[in-house]
């Protein structure tokens, strides 16, 4: 990313470096939760929150705690602890205030803690040497990009429930086929239309 303007960072996070369709990170909740649009929306909101907060907290931890103490080698462990803590917070809030959503997300909500998309985000923030604000913008954008793809995929999967599909490709094979088509659309569109 040569130009670090906030608009470019935002567009990169949503489209160019989309964590699901371009980087292929976070496929477990992508395939598991996109059977219904409501579940996809709930998971998207949770991922946006976790990605944004993880970007902010890991920047502070790395820059003001680990860096000054020459403990940079502990970054990965610290990032995992931060992400797991944030996911526990989100899980508690959803379980307390939105029980139907909590039930529909099932095991996939705690899996955000081990979601490679969230860890990939904080590592990309460090690799790109983003400032605090740039990291938060990239976190929000990556979460929005994740959410857009989740909702698109849930719409495709809900519609294909109305279509006759051969039994040999029902379920996960068809979901991967649809994901491939979405990925090709993202890659081809954003290569032709420069942002």
Automatic annotation (TrEMBL):
Organism: Methanosalsum natronophilum
Superkingdom as given in the UniProt entry: Archaea
Major place of residence: membrane
Entry function: Part of a membrane-bound complex that couples electron transfer with translocation of ions across the membrane.
BP terms from Gene Ontology: electron transport chain
Self-association state and partner proteins as the record states: The Rnf complex is probably composed of eight subunits, including RnfA, RnfB, RnfC, RnfD, RnfE and RnfG.
Compartments, as annotated in UniProt: Cell membrane; Endomembrane system
Enzyme Commission identifier(s): 7.-.-.-
Keywords carried by this UniProt record: Cell membrane, Electron transport, Membrane, Translocase, Transmembrane, Transmembrane helix, Transport
Pfam families: Rnf-Nqr
PANTHER family (UniProt xref): INTEGRAL MEMBRANE PROTEIN OF SOXR-REDUCING COMPLEX, ION-TRANSLOCATING OXIDOREDUCTASE COMPLEX SUBUNIT A
Transmembrane segments: 6-33, 45-67, 73-93, 105-124, 130-152, 172-190
Protein name (database record): Ion-translocating oxidoreductase complex subunit A
Alphabetized InterPro entries for the sequence: Ion_transpt_RnfA/RsxA, Ion_transpt_RnfA_Methano, NqrDE/RnfAE, NqrDE/RnfAE_oxidrdctase
HAMAP family for this protein: RsxA_RnfA
Membrane-topology annotation of the record: Multi-pass membrane protein
GO CC annotations, alphabetized: endomembrane system; plasma membrane
């Amino acid at each position: 990313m040569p130009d670090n303007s906030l608009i470019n960072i935002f567009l990169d996070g949503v489209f160019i470096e989309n964590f699901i369709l371009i980087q292929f990170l976070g496929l477990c909740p992508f395939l598991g939760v996109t059977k219904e649009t409501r579940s996809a929306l709930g998971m998207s909101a949770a991922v946006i929150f976790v990605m944004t907060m993880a970007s902010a907290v890991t920047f502070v931890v790395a820059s003001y705690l680990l860096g000054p103490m020459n403990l940079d080698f502990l970054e990965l462990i610290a990032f995992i602890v931060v992400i797991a803590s944030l996911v526990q917070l989100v899980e508690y809030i959803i379980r307390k205030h939105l029980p139907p959503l909590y039930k529909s997300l099932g095991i996939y909500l705690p899996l955000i803690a081990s979601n490679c998309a969230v860890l990939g985000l904080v590592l990309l923030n460090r690799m790109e040497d983003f400032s605090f604000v740039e990291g938060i913008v990239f976190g929000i954008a990556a979460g929005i990009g994740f959410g857009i793809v989740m909702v698109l995929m849930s719409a495709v999967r809900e519609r294909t429930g109305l279509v006759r599909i051969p039994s040999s490709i029902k379920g996960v094979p068809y979901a991967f086929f649809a994901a491939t088509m979405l990925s090709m659309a993202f890659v081809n569109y954003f290569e032709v239309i420069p942002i």
